[in-house]
Amino acid sequence: MRKEKFVSVIIAAAGKGKRMNSHINKQYLNIGEKPVLAHTIEVFNKCSFIDEIIVVTHPDEVAYCKEKVINFFGLEKVTKVVAGGKERQESIFNGLKAVYQKCDIVVIHDGARPFVREEYILKSIDEAIKHKAVGVGVPVKDTIKVVDEEKNIKNTLNRNVLWAIQTPQTFDYQLLLRAHKKAIEDGYLGTDDTVLVERLGEKVRMLMSSYDNIKITTPEDLYIGEAILRNRK
Ligand SMILES: Nc1ccn([C@@H]2O[C@H](COP(=O)(O)OP(=O)(O)OP(=O)(O)O)[C@@H](O)[C@H]2O)c(=O)n1
Ligand SMILES: C[C@](O)(CO)[C@H](O)COP(=O)(O)O
User: Which residue windows are coiled coil (predicted)?
Assistant: First the structure.
């Protein structure tokens, strides 16, 4: 069934990586012998059901990304590198406007999540063909508290229903485009894409992925990433 669908991937890599505190943007820092972003794109590039990859980078880094990542690592499925916006949501919207006009299914993935496994990409494409919207994630391991501005605990959430959502998040293209347009119309800014579809009142499926599908966010994630990579070899 997947083969009949045109599948585009949008890699969001236009953030500034402020929490990493590095003069080099975190996507271009090495884990093992390759930049974070090269690890991420390689997984999609190798995946036979992916037809095109659109990379969204910071406007100042388009040329750098092409030279140091796309061309250097021979990532031939990347058809376009486009400039992102100030917020992640804006960057994804720029990506949505750049995909092939006959795109059926769109997979959204963070450039900063280099340990995504092909298995979950394939499962999420299948699930999106059936259900139109799907995110991957993991049940939370910690007990989650709601804390106010004075650092007082207000209440404790029921962990049995809490999941941490990751990417890939995979959608029927027209549905996600509609969800983004509605968010723009309403002035709504979300921190992922599934929430935009939730706002339309549409069902979004959750697929179990793995705890090692981490997002490289703060400096300690780099040595956790080195350990994940060593463990995979
Ligand atoms: N305007 C933005 C902001 C974020 N992202 C991307 O969205 C992913 C998840 O965002 P996050 O980890 O928060 O990255 P940054 O925004 O770069 O991090 P920070 O908040 O520390 O600056 C990253 O791959 C990032 O490059 C993006 O494409 N466009
Ligand atoms: C989309 C996301 O990866 C889901 O966990 C995440 O929300 C994006 O990162 P941010 O740190 O919230 O910008």
Answer: none
